[in-house]
Amino acid sequence: MRSLNELLDVHDELRERFALHRDFVVGLDFGRALAELETFERELRVHMDVEEAHVLPLYRERVGKITGGDPEFFLLEHRNILRNLDAAKESLRRLAADPSSGRRQAHEFLDQEWMLHHLIEHHDLREKNTLYPRLDEAVSEREREELLARCGLGRV
Ligand SMILES: [Fe+2]
Ligand SMILES: [Fe+2]
To answer: How far apart are the first and last CA of the chain?
Structure first.
């Protein structure tokens, strides 16, 4: 039997993309760090759109407001992550444009980006521990297959 956890595979890809972005910060290549962060954002938005269009509406209907898993929290976290991402891109743009940017600016940037990193990790855990397993329990096998197909993971 399939599991909705298949939809979480993309979290690992996103984590890797974010780590790559930070590798470039550490390597003082702020231009590439920005480019990787922009790619991360594009992929993240695609994933969030899928969740907001297909996963969360069904979760809201079938699971609803449970402790630690209010459907609206997941949406708020998406907005919060994107807002923090905007601030990180803005800082990187400034660093990339300034030839005097160096190691000091790199670690100041990583300190500043800590909140974004934390929000992403926290969101990932809540989806892994609550959203997907609770929804998985609440749907029939046929509904699960239909949801996976709507999210682009139809059986081949
Ligand atoms: Fe999400
Ligand atoms: Fe997710």
So the answer is: 15
CA 29 to centroid of ligand 1, rounded, Å: 29
Gap between the Cα atoms of 37 and 57, Å rounded: 28
pTM of the entire predicted model: 0.94
Measured in whole angstroms, the distance separating CA 69 from the mean position of its chain's CA atoms is 17
For residue 79, give both structure tokens: 């907005």
Dist. CA 71 → ligand 1 center (Å)? 11
Three-class secondary structure of residue 142 per DSSP? helix
> pLDDT tens-digit profile of 95-145?
999 999 999 999 999 999 999 999 999 999 999 999 999 999 999 999 999
Return all residues near 113 (Cβ < 8 A) that are at least 6 apart.
22, 88, 91
Report how far ligand 2's centroid is from the alpha carbon of 104 (Å).
33
